[in-house]
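Example record used in the benchmark description.
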Amino acid sequence: MSVKGQAKIVFKPSQPNKVDLSQGVTNLLENLKNENKAHVLLSSNKVLCPVGFEYTPLVPIDAYKKLEDIKPENLELWIITSALKRFDPSFVIKRWKHILESL
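Model output (structure tokens):
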């Protein structure tokens, strides 16, 4: 098939204070915005293939504001993942903080 590519592995140690989680989410969002890159999240018991993301405001009235006008601490990141198994739902949407807890 003549497919060429490269991989980048980011390792999260078991001690949560040993890794910069903001860099991990930055890499993930950059890869999701680029149509030539893919991202796979692996853990001991699951595999996630993110295909999209969305920021949602924590305060309901902020839903009517521009994203740039909302403080980052008032936003929550949701990751859209695709199914890997035939009997799973096509897409699963999870909070980023819940994905981090399961990795």
